Structures are given as structure tokens and as C-alpha cells.
Amino acid sequence: MKRSPILLFALPGLLLALAGCDRHAPSSPVAAAAVVAPSSPKAPGLSAVAQLGKKIFFDPSLSGSGKLACASCHSPDHAYAPPNNLAVQLGGPGLDRQGLRAVPSLRYLEHTPVFTIGPNSSVPDSDAAAPPAVPATTADIKVAAIAKNTQASAALLAAEAHVPMGGLDWDGRADTLQSQAQGPFLDPNEMDNKSSATLLDKLRGAPYADELRQLFGANVFSNPDLALSEALFALARFQLEDPSFHPYDSKYDYYLAGMASLTPAEARGLKLFEDPQKGNCSSCHIDKPSHDGMFPPAFTDYQFEALAGPRNRELLAN
């Protein structure tokens, strides 16, 4: 679709307002000392389970090379995305094997619905009750669309239209944070554990093994499936509880919270972003909070779109 010159000039202003990247001081008349992250009131300390998950997240000994941790590819200093400009990250026993795809950020995954094609009653409508903010059990970790959420409503429409949507990873193959975490541990091009038993042996010998016993039972390692499941559960708790995984700290977030003002150029960009006759970007990149105001927008309808982009020839897999 042909874009007008006005759109080309106005949208960059909006994009600057949307960009967060840990910029905590919005460019607005609001005094810096008074600024608090709009959706993250002072966060309580992490639970014991989340603290254990944090140790697992930063532990390189859980890889075949002994040098690759979750945080190596999902760097907290780079929005939990890669800390370099490689086309794809390197792993394996010698840290010289290419993965198959670029590593995505782990931020803003907490409201992602499960993968769906076609009608699915598991996707809630706008009147459904919201799930608990802090699930208490492993089973409760199931990532589902947040109720009364504009994004969830769009997800429901996508499901009814037989459009693939939801899920974690680039192809939606993981429905929970636990299953997403297990993939890199066992991938020969990534953390390269030969089997779940190999990974379990490393957990059993880790400095925090006693914490696993204290939290999940003295005999947790006698049940390999349970021990691995609980370790992955701890990783998921860390991602859900630590506010750095979902800071919502861009200028646009502050604007929605009434704590910042858009410049004239940014305001024009927002108007074009939302105008169905102009950019119409917000039809897919939803820019409004949930209907109850509890959740800021994630700028996605969680659908998979065929962009027909060329294969990245820097990847050996291509």
C-alpha cells in the first residue's frame, strides 16, 4: 500500500515514543524523581522458587560446554535478547555450532496465549475471569490469554478465523515457559545436553541442589521427571516474577499512564498508526491496554503472518 509523505515523517516520532529499552526517564514535563514504572509498582522480592530459577538461568555449568547459560543468549543487559550482532547464536560442545534461528527476546511473554489454529474454547472471551497473577503450582503456569484484554479478544477472533496464533518460540511450538526452557537445554546446537538424564545429573551436582530438595521434597531427585519439571518450573517463576522481564517503561507506556506527553510529531504518528485509512498499524499491533486497565499493550495480536522475507543466507541451515 502506498504511504503518504506525512506518514513517513510522522511515524518515526511515534516509534521513538514506543521504544523502551530501559529508558526510565521519559522526555516529558514530569519530574524525574516522581516517575515510577506505570505498571510495575515497587516489586516485592522474588519468591524462593523464583530465586532458584534465577540461579539456574545464569548457570553455565548446565550446558555441554560448561560455558553457556540461558543468560548467554538471553542477556538481561540486552532486553533478554542476544548480546551481539550475530545472525544466529553459537552453541554446542565447542560453542561453534549455529542454531537454526535467531534468538528472540524473553520479554513480554507473560500474556501470550497458547498456540491455536481454528476455534478453541481455551482462549477466553472478554468476559472471562482473569487467571491468578502468581500461579501456585506447575500446572498453573500454562500461558493463556489474559481475560478482558484487547489482545486476547483479537486472539479469539484469529482462532475463529482459523488463523495460527499464540505459543512461544518463533513457530509457537511451546505452550508453556517450562517447555520453552527445556528446548535449548537439549538442543545439540545450543546447550547440548545429550538427554534429560544428563541435565538432571548436572542439577543434582549444582551448588543449589539442596534448594531443590528443600523446595520440592527431599526425594525430588529420585523421580527424574519430577526433578526436571520442578527445575523448569523455577525458571518459569523467575521469568514471571522478575519485573525486568516485563518493565513496560517506554515513553508510550508513561503516556498511557498519564505520566508523559507526546510531542506533536509523536501525536501525529500515533494518529496515523491507528487510522484505518492510513497506516492501520494498530489493527495488528494492538496499542491499547486491556479493557480493565491492568495490562499495558504488547503491540501484537499474537497471529503468525507470512511476510515472504528471504532466507538468511548467513545461517548454515539455509
3D architecture notes:
The chain is mainly alpha-helical. The protein has helices at residues 5-18, 48-57, 70-73, 150-160, 177-186, 196-204, 209-216, 224-241, 251-256, 264-274, and strands spanning 90-91, 97-98. It has ten helices and two strands. The chain has a two-stranded antiparallel sheet with strand order 1-2. The two termini are 30 Å apart. Strand 1 (90-91) and strand 2 (97-98) form a beta hairpin. Helix 1 packs across helix 10 and helix 5 (177-186) crosses helix 8. 32% of the residues lie in helices and 1% in strands.
Q: Secondary-structure blueprint of this entry?
A:
Layout: H1 5-18, H2 48-57, H3 70-73, E1 90-91, E2 97-98, H4 150-160, H5 177-186, H6 196-204, H7 209-216, H8 224-241, H9 251-256, H10 264-274
Antiparallel strand pairs: 1-2
Computed Rg: 21 Å
Strand content: under 5%
Report the strand count.
2
Q: What's the main sheet like?
A: 2 strands, antiparallel
Helix fraction bin: 25-40%
Count of separate DSSP helical elements = 10
Distance separating the two termini = 30 Å
Computed structural class: mainly alpha
Name the strands of the widest sheet in spatial order.
1-2
The overall pLDDT, averaged over residues, is 78
**Approximate shape:** globular
Task: List segments where confidence is low: pLDDT < 50 over at least 5 consecutive residues.
Answer: 1-12, 20-43, 120-149
